[in-house]
Amino acid sequence: MTASDLRQRVRDRSVIIFALVVPLALMFVFNLTLGGAADQSLDPVTVAVSAPADDTLAPILIASLTQVDGVDVTVDEVSADEARDRARSGTAELGVVIPEGFGDAVRQGEETVVAVTEGDGSGLESDILLTVMQGVLAQLSAGAVTAAAGAQSGVPAEDLGALAQQAATQAAGLNLTEGEAANEQLSIAGALVAGQAGLFLLFTVGFGVLGLIAEREQGTLARLRSMPMRPGLIVTAKGLVSFILGFVATGVLLTAGSIFFGVSFGSPVAVAVLIVCAVAAATSLMFIIARAARTAEQASALQTILALVLAISGGAFFPLTATGALDTVLGLNPIAAFTRGLGITSGGGGLGDIGVPVAIMLTFAVVGLAASRLVPDRGRDL
Q1: Residue 51 has pLDDT above 50, yes or no
Q2: Would the pTM count as exceeding 0.85?
Q3: Which Pfam families does the annotation name (predicted)?
Q4: Cα separation of the two ends of the chain
Q5: 56: number of CA atoms within 13 Å, CB side?
Q6: Which DSSP string do the residues of 30-47 spell out, in sequence order?
């Protein structure tokens, strides 16, 4: 019975369309829409700078502009008026004017102002450079604070200048070390593939279990029940059809997503376990719908509503953030657990690391199957 139903479903074009064609198409569309945000590049920037020729600290500020990774910065040293004019005319994104006596003011702990003019074409790149300059100026201003503190502490006046310069030019005591995101996080492309695979899994498994309603409407279910076998075998066969279709379709989607979008989900064995658990959870939900719906139209409507609710709350379209009890509730979503599990395997985790997502999905499956026996059978045939 399972083999016969599978052959029938494979011949049905709607199964191929909903299980493979539509989700793959959506993956490509979303990747074109969101992929640019992940691969955004920064444009070259021109900065017109006016600085005193004999100042010893001004070059430190200027050099910081050319040392920003990812931003191609061209520094043109011009007069103060020209620096402002070039920014206003748009030939430079920033015009920076360092005043006379800048270095001496820092050494003596006196206030000094660096004037910055933003051009009309300034954007993200200019904001980055402004942030860098603010950081450097904050470090240099530490010289003024040090000099003032030294004077109050009785440091000789002839030593204040050297003390202030040392504080202004000394490298920060903090180091930035590049690391990796937590291993439960997928890349944008990875989350897109996992989310769409989870969403359409909820539609794919419906072709098996929800076939009971179609069989009932066509009258073939009554003939099947009249055959010399236990009625539970009919339900089991439909469940197996859902399980096989869901497992194969989800595996194909993840494999295709890995190939087309350059995503690695890690250990194939661990990923297969996650797929099995996700399919079990989705199939249990179909049993509830099969008992709650009177007609195929009602079943289709319920399936669509529940699939979209679980997909949206599970982050299939965009990531959701929550805290407290709401975060706990969202974490019980089988699609969220499936995506989380793939994030763990993508980060190098194995079978021993996916216990929590597996437990969530299997618990959902058990609760769903139990609930399907408690829901009144509106079709009176199961």
Answers
A1: yes
A2: no
A3: ABC2_membrane_3 (PF12698)
A4: 17
A5: 10
A6: HHHHHHHHHT--PPPEEE
